[in-house]
Amino acid sequence: MNNDTVLSLNRLSKQFGTVVANESVSIDLKRGEILSLLGENGAGKTTLMNMLFGHYMPDSGSIDVADANGQLTPLTLGHPQAALNVGIGMVHQHFTLAENLSAIDNILLGSESLFAWRRSMHQAREKINNIMQRTGLSAPLDTIVGQLSVGERQRVEILKALYRDTRILVLDEPTAVLTPQEADTLFANIKVMAKDGLSVIFISHKLREVLAFSHRIAVLRHGKKVGEIATKDADEKIISRLMVGADTPPTPRETMDVGAPMLQLIDLSVTGQSARTTLEHINLTVSANEIVGIAGVSGNGQSTLAKVISGLIAPTSGQVNIDSEQVIQFTPANLLKAGVGRIPEDRHHDGVIGAMSVAENLAIESLDSNEIQKNGFLRRQQLTLNAQRLSQKYDIRGPGTEAPARLLSGGNIQKLILARVFEASPKLILANQPTRGLDMGAVSEVGKRLLQARKRGAGILLISEDLDELLALADRIIVMHDGALHPAPSHDRAQIGLIMAGEIS
Amino acid sequence: MIRIEPREAPSRRLTIGIPIASAILALLLAAIPLSFAGANIGEAYQQMAKGIFGSMFAFTEMLTRATPLIFTGLAATLAFRAKLWNIGAEGQLYLGAMAAVAVGTGWISGPPILLIPMILIAGALAGALGMAGPAYLKTRFGADEVVTTLLLNFIILIFIQMMLEGPLKDPMGMGWPQSSPVVDNAILPQILPRMRLHYGLVIALVAAVIAHVMLSKSVWGLKLRAVGENAAAALHAGIGVKRTLMSAALISGAVAGLAGVSEVAGLRGYLTNDLSPGYGYTGIVVAMLAGLSPLGVVIAALFIASVFVGADTMSRAMGVSSYLADLVVSMSLICVLIGGFIARFTIKITPSNKKLSTTGSGAE
Asked: How far apart are CA A186 and CA A189, in angstroms?
């Protein structure tokens, strides 16, 4: 088999209402090939993959998959089971794990017969251990998924796909939550597996990874394939021009002298239920005109730190000062009042109320203000005017200010949250994974806004797993590992990676 | 091949149209058991309509029946909007009724302008009190309010029975387990002469309007909706989730309590332990049929009251069981639930493609 194409998408189109998600997209994938699928949010990557995986039914077009003999055979569309049967595996951007089951149960879920008398756990465990050894992915198999960090959950997802003898693996932004070293290991091992015959479709926003890792790059824009290029002929400039249609200027930043301390954590400890929710003797100062970056693999205490500063949990011991005022009562309302603006990690879960309107979501943190209400009643007109102004200022695009927020795309939801946070002119901004899952346009918007706030005199605590983002934005980088903070000596990628992995000199 | 895909936003026409279509469909489906019962279907429907619109008396009877359903429907709506599943409106109704007779049967005397507000407030407080326990257990310990409120219904009913055999028993009642009659000055007056319809209906309508305004226009309503739709985000945004839940619970209980006051002071005149034929539970159906909209509750309550009253007339005239009314009410709820599902999804029918490639092969 010389022309060993294993997968061929033929002129796939999909329309949701009036929105064209995909228009006549054709892509071929060869055996052992790593194909990067690039595109801004809303470019149609996820829809395309959902059609491949049988979650969506294409309006037109067909999909051919090579069978065991290498013969291209049409795939039954719209049936996930058919896709699974021919060896298409997918790791979704949003995890599809059952939180109340253990990692191993999740991996086995769906691949066991419902009517089997007994479970051959031993064999399964052996197979998984084998995969873990081969790929370097590790996850605590017997822990309940609900207790795992985001990073670990993703590894379980990948293991789950690999466990099913996948021949074509789709990875939807898999590295968002891994350390650079872990990501490198993942890449290295996927490369090995690709040599072994695994074909990979790799969806990412990170150009550096795409360039380092893949064989071929296909770019989607507005639902159409706008380019396909062999990676060896590509560079960041060419690709980003294909993706957004223009060069993205690097975020400009100026050096600034820091001002008064806006956030002081003094010997802060939180005794959590597990190691990942525990903080040990944290000391940290974030001053005005300063962005302090917290790097680290998820599950090392970042969420707990963010929860304390958001007012969702109270520390076991230690002190938190906002603008030199000690926080006594840890409630979200109190910390808001103290001048903390919070960009939550999970914007869908904590950031917006999907069923309520954009206008209401914009107002929800300032319900006491006289602009929003009068004698306990909402000033609807004011709310709408405000929302229209902010939608324009922050470029929130969607079906309108009175439409439910869940109709907005991820990037626009984040812009809504940015508008809410920045309009309150907070003294301290807690930005927890503010660019996760956003497209390049939205990412640069977040960076621009954070730098503006820094210039205005806010202190910013930026928690991120994206080292590139921290290196670009943060004045200082501090690594969080096992619930403790370790200042990074410099903006040195390799060194920070080592501290993240726990190898502290 | 038939595929079911999620719809992004159900249109306004659908959200209003589906309950109406469900109600009509449920009425039509009633033809099936009617024909089993051997009745002439056309005549049965005619009798049903006559039972509702046939005379002024029939129509006011329907409105009288709708009155407690508006209250209990509102009680369910206010709680459910906060995702607080108050199943205890039945018990709260009885508590309200008991408070009304405790206050309104003689130990205070005064003009109606004083006594009527007093029994209303007493009933509302008692109803709220009935919801305070479950709400506290939920916000403090996370106890499931479905269980606590439901079980409390039975406790309250037995408690009422005890009170009717004891302190509240009418000494002139010839031994019947019933309370003394509510004094004349505390009675909710009739709206029309010689009709049973009383001013409880007006209070219920005012309550519905207030609930609508509070839910859609007040900051409290916004907080309540926020907590109901996404408690985590509401908490994050600085809304006092527990306090909001507590207030929703108490107001829900209070409105259910008003249903009891309205029944005892507007219709019966005294309290017995069969005051409500399950108005508290039917209120849940009313609320669901109304799509948890306070103004919709009024319409839904009128519909369900019509079904009950109409089916009564029909069963008398045709000799079929009056349980048909329960059947229609149940079927309309099922239709609404299915309709709600359809509203959230679209069903797409595409020509089936029998191009199945592999089953079982492929892996390894």
From this structure: 5
